[in-house]
Amino acid sequence: MKLWGRTAWPFQVTFLVALVMLCIDPVSTGNRNHRGPTVSYQVKQGTCEVVAVHRCCNKNKIEERSQTVKCSCFPGQVAGTTRARPSCVEASIVAQKWWCQMQPCMDGEECKVLPDLTGWSCSTGNKVKTTKVTR
């Protein structure tokens, strides 16, 4: 999932595909990272923790942000986003692409599912932050 917005704001984007995969994979993954050894530790059940943040700009001066999150969700839950933070959400929300039912936006922001169901946007005033889920 990538965030396409005109303003910077910390920790809004959650890379859902990575989250889902991290919920499915065992928490201690060993040395899978090509950049060096990974730190192996347990995440408290029912929670998610940000382990890496990435940021760049494209040629249109639109900032793109993503983050890698490690989750340990309860049965029936998968990794998602609640109030612009990574969290465990009901699996049916993600499976049926009812993104706004996760409450992914900050208080005061309006959530709208994208017309093609590939993500959602959070808006307030003239600011729009769009999050797309990629698989």
TrEMBL record:
Taxonomy, superkingdom: Eukaryota
GO molecular function: receptor ligand activity
Species annotation: Monopterus albus (Swamp eel)
Keywords: Signal
InterPro entries, A to Z: Chemokine-like_TAFA, TAFA_chemokine-like
Name used for this protein in its record: TAFA chemokine like family member 4b
Family of the protein in this entry: Belongs to the TAFA family.
A Pfam family matched in the record: TAFA
Record-level GO cellular component terms: extracellular space
Annotated signal sequence range: 1-30
PANTHER family xrefs: CHEMOKINE-LIKE PROTEIN TAFA FAMILY MEMBER, CHEMOKINE-LIKE PROTEIN TAFA-4
